[in-house]
């Protein structure tokens, strides 16, 4: 079954980390991409680069920033193929975001 | 007689069907059909020598028929090219016991707690949806939705029908035990004895399936010890505190059984888990002379393990017996449990013993507001009335 691992980070998670520590975290994410279960994944630029668009009364409304002010913000994802949710959770549990106060949402993809 | 067979066989049959069909919805429907056919047929015909095998094979064949009719569904299950109906064999030696797989599936932490409880009662306990709804004081429709959402999630996210691998097993066993204890307390707290008995029955099954799991044995011991005092716990529709209970009403055979299991658990365990500590406390509290320092020491370890303020609250009873009500009150007053009814009733008892009548009365009143069972309310009302004299 295919799952998305949706990584939510605290916006301040990287504040106070030096370049070396950041590089180490990036390297951890990169290593996980080599896991045979991983089909792909991307990392997003920080939330303050987001532009949100919605339709209201037939008008398009643009706002600066992510769709909602939340404690955590969507920061990236992996698409994986795993035998069952236990296998997906095992992989998700390795993501550094968890250590940095974030969370990972595990969602199955719609079968096509 | 038939009811008994059904109750005993339901989980075994359902587990075998989930294992075979790989789909809990399908297995549930197939099991229901098989049991319905059996209840009609066995009224007139002789019950087969091996009702379990009969039920499993009938359920399998029904499911296969259904899948043949519903091609689209068939494509999504394991049974695309299904073999012809299986012959009913004389014995069930070829039907593996897959109840443990079923338990871990129903208690998977990806399901909401109330869904785990409902699903466990339905799948392992064989309770009907209306029975479960009544036990949890929700409408039948609500419970039906809860169960179907849970089964849906099992299928959609591929919650495995398997015993978890070693690295997650301890955590997952804890989850299973927590579900059983929730079921037990639902029956115990409101005097709905059926669920307490059901939790104990499930506890025996689990111990049977995982004989080396000390905490499972300890939980069963704990439930037996608590449940043994059931008849003494309410008198004239009013809750009776442990100390004031009529011990002749305690179920001594069940107490003995609980203590024996507790000894077993203690020898299996290399360290004391939370259920072992709780069961040890419950056992000490049934002794003719309660060894309060020993109870207090066990509570101290339980506090360390859980960090729970509720445990500290319970410990206050032991502190009161050893150091007196003032020391206990100091401990209780430091807890942040203002919305918990037993916080207020415990405070009230201590204040009463200290002769602080007005404060005791206020605390009983607050406990009364938060109380959810009639027997508890009657106890609190009487305490309040006594203070007015």
Describe the structure.
The complex is a heterodimer of chains A (112) and B (389). Chain A is α+β, with helices and mostly antiparallel strands. Chain A has a single domain, classed as 2-Layer Sandwich (Alpha-Beta Plaits). Chain A is 24% helix and 37% strand. Chain A has helices at 19-33, 85-92, 96-99; strands at 2-9, 38-43, 51-56, 59-64, 73-81, 103-108. In chain A, strand 3 and strand 4 form a beta hairpin. The radius of gyration of chain A is 16 Å and the shape is flat. Chain A starts with a strand and ends with a strand. The mean pLDDT of chain A is 92. By secondary structure, chain B is an all-alpha fold. Chain B folds into three domains: 2-88, Rna Polymerase Sigma Factor, Chain: A (Orthogonal Bundle), CATH 1.10.1740; 98-185, Arc Repressor Mutant, subunit A; 291-389, Serine Threonine Protein Phosphatase 5, Tetratricopeptide repeat (Alpha Horseshoe). Helix content of chain B is 70%, strand content 1%. Chain B is built from 20 helices and two strands. Chain B has a two-stranded antiparallel sheet with strand order 1-2. In chain B, helix 16 runs antiparallel to helix 17 (325-333). Chain B is elongated, with a radius of gyration of 24 Å.
Give me some keywords for this one:
heterodimer, A: 112 residues, alpha+beta, 4-stranded antiparallel sheet, two-stranded antiparallel ribbon, 6 strands, B: 389 residues, Arc Repressor Mutant, subunit A, Serine Threonine Protein Phosphatase 5, Tetratricopeptide repeat, 1% strand
């Amino acid at each position: 079954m295919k799952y998305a691992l949706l990584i939510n980070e605290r916006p301040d998670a990287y504040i106070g980390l030096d370049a070396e520590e950041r590089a180490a975290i990036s390297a951890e994410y990169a290593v996980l991409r080599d896991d045979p279960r991983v089909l792909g994944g991307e990392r997003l630029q920080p939330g303050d680069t987001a532009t949100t668009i919605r339709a209201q009364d037939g008008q398009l409304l643009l706002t600066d920033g992510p769709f909602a002010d939340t404690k955590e913000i969507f920061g990236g994802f992996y698409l994986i193929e795993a035998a069952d949710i236990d296998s997906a959770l095992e992989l998700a549990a390795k993501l550094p975001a968890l250590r940095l106060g974030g969370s990972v949402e595990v969602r199955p993809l719609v079968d096509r | 007689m038939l009811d008994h067979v059904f109750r005993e066989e339901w989980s075994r049959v359902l587990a075998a069907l989930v294992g075979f069909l790989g789909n809990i919805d399908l297995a549930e429907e197939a099991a229901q059909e098989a049991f319905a056919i059996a209840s009609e047929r066995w009224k007139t015909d002789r019950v087969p020598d091996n009702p379990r095998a009969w039920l499993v094979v009938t359920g399998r064949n029904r499911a296969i028929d259904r899948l043949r009719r519903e091609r689209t569904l068939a494509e999504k299950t394991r049974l695309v090219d299904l073999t012809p109906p299986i012959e009913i064999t004389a014995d069930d030696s070829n039907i593996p016991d897959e109840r443990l797989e079923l338990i871990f599936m129903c208690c998977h932490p990806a399901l909401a707690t109330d869904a785990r409880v409902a699903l466990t009662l339905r799948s392992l306990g064989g309770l009907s949806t209306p029975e479960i709804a009544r036990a949890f004081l929700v409408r039948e429709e609500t419970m039906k939705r809860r169960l179907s959402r849970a089964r849906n999630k099992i299928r959609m996210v591929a919650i495995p029908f398997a015993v978890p691998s070693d690295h997650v097993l301890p955590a997952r066993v804890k989850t299973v035990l927590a579900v059983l204890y929730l079921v037990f307390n639902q029956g115990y707290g409101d005097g709905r004895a059926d669920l307490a008995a059901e939790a104990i029955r499930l506890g025996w099954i689990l111990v049977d399936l995982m004989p080396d799991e000390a905490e499972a044995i300890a939980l069963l011991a704990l439930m037996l010890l608590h449940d043994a005092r059931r008849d003494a716990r309410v008198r004239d529709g009013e809750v009776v505190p442990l100390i004031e209970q009529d011990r002749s009403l305690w179920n001594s055979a069940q107490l003995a059984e609980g203590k024996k299991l507790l000894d077993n658990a203690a020898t299996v365990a290399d360290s004391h888990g939370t259920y072992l500590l709780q069961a040890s406390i419950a056992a000490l509290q049934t002794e003719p002379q309660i060894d309060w320092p020993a109870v207090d020491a066990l509570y101290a370890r339980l506090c360390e393990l859980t960090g729970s303020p509720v445990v500290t609250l319970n410990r206050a009873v032991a502190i009161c017996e050893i150091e007196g009500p003032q020391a206990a009150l100091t401990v209780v007053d430091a807890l942040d449990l203002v919305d918990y009814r037993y916080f207020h009733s415990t405070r009230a008892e201590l204040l009463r013993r200290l002769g602080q009548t007005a404060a005791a009365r206020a605390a009983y009143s607050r406990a009364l507001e938060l109380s959810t069972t009639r027997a508890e309310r009657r106890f609190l009302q009487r305490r309040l009335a006594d203070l007015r004299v």
